[in-house]
Predict the structure.
Amino acid sequence: MADWIDCLNFGISIAKQASEVVLSAFQQQKEVKLKSSPADLVTETDQRVEKILISAITNRYPDHRCIGEESVAAGERVQLTDAPTWIIDPIDGTVNFVHRFPFLAVSIAFTVNQQTQFGIVYSCVEDKLFHAHRGGGAFLNGQPLHASGQEDVSRCVVVTEIGAERDDLALSTMTANIFRLLKLPVHGIRALGTAAVDMCQVATGGADAYYHIGMHCWDIAASAIIVQEAGGVVMDTDGSVFDMMSRRVIAASSFTVANRIAQVIQAFPCHRDDQDPDSCVCGASGVNGL
């Protein structure tokens, strides 16, 4: 574990360096390109920050592997092996970054034997550093984090995102999910525009649950272990064991809340992150418990 603590400290240092690059470009005009949809954006800063992070990691740890959002967008396959692997989102919340909406983060997770050992989420504009390592607790700017422990879903604030999908099935499913949750009822639904920071709100106790369908492993790998180490629960949207490659997640203050949300939300079909993009589409599409 001592070796991974060294990696954690290094990860924190490069996340801070990356944040400086992001902030230096935050108020500037950006050259924006589209990826999978009109809401799936990339800027030169996304690509530059990822290159900085991967270069720093490979120079320090030449035997480690990296999975980066922009590298995958450029054609690399997602292959999570047993080797030490860094999972990187250089700017989680690129749409926010483009519009200068002040919620965006550098997200870094580290896995060994396909198990996450630590996660780092640096909310750049807020200057909030979330991190956790397996068995060592979760922290915000050095202070311990604790999920709310709420077990009554009717007293919950729930965070989610619409995401980049714009096909009819995805949009109708996502809006129907919000309707179902509001009718449970819950206290409210919130969205910050960055999955990593969204999920970290559950770790702080400021929100009681987060769910999402269609995000990617680099969006939530780091924040998942932060929630778990803060005492929260992370699972698939169908109530099964969390799989970061499935592109489905519920994070919650308690198993009771997570399970209740799993009973009412619906998932639309989407490729796994580690699936051959040319193969068939996978995903659940039935409503659980309704």
